[in-house]
């Protein structure tokens, strides 16, 4: 057997495998011998069928199968030994094969991953957001808690302080969604007045344009997706099903103890500090994810490398369950090219900066997650044996291990980006951060 490679260019290669008869004939003979032992052919006893008849009936099929097995094994070994980073899978070249020849020759096309390096310390326009819970947000959260733990009172008519349960509908647009909204949620006094004085069963028609302070609220109440809600200007009918008003809970020790445990919080100032601490912890995780995404987007824009587009388009034609035409494969490649570039950059971040995972890191992270979950249910100091048993069960699940491994690697990448990427730190409120997230 002989394997050679011809590099057509930096992104394409042809691997040629030559098989002599001695490379495969023994396997073929063994399979045919087993066929002979077990063949049931009319006119012959089992095991007494002439080999010539077995060869005539099964020889070519067995030869094809055994040669294919050897090709797959040898090609796989060759790619591993040569450490070739390929895209897609090798494609056999359609050559006429003389199966009676002493040497069989097979060609395979390879699409090679491009060579490139990443510059994390170069010039960029990336912002790293520090999201703070401002006074306005803290006041909103305190009021939300008061309403959440307050007493609901049913009302006869809608007033300025009322909350309504009802259904937004527009038959033509396929909108029919029951929600709870407060009159104060509605943006303008003009629209608020359309609801005030109405009773259960009444209907109010309003335009979606400017109905709420931002489109995300409109997206929520109409149950439509983010792309559809922008610029949406239609009339919707709101049918009132319930009218309620919340009598706010008092900000006293009884409420503080109910929220955080006895004596943990003893004043409104401490309540706000607690809310601020918890909120900004969540904001930090969201800001970190945006920073990760923004760095990757920057690397996508700033890293220039070619892909073996013609090879990948050809590979896509037969890669799925249903074969594609050349035009369909070209369209599919165009759609998936950015995703492929993203995957290559992700892999390059790990290889160029030698980011690796080991079992102990994954186990340690799993233990941390388990303890945090147990603490949420009041188990602040669980026994080590109990935690170890849960960790063992979690790590016996491959899907869970894969998910946790991704989390640990994300933390490593984030630490790398924080160290290497020169980003502008910008302090913003959560409301402004949401605008930055969605480019509004």
UniProtKB/TrEMBL annotation:
It comes from the Bacteria. One of its GO terms (biological process) is protein unfolding. Pfam families: Trigger_N. Residues 1-143 form the Trigger factor ribosome-binding bacterial domain. PANTHER family: TRIGGER FACTOR CHAPERONE AND PEPTIDYL-PROLYL CIS/TRANS ISOMERASE, TRIGGER FACTOR-LIKE PROTEIN TIG, CHLOROPLASTIC. NCBIfam families: tig. This is Trigger factor. It comes from Myroides marinus. The lineage of its organism: Bacteria, Pseudomonadati, Bacteroidota, Flavobacteriia, Flavobacteriales.
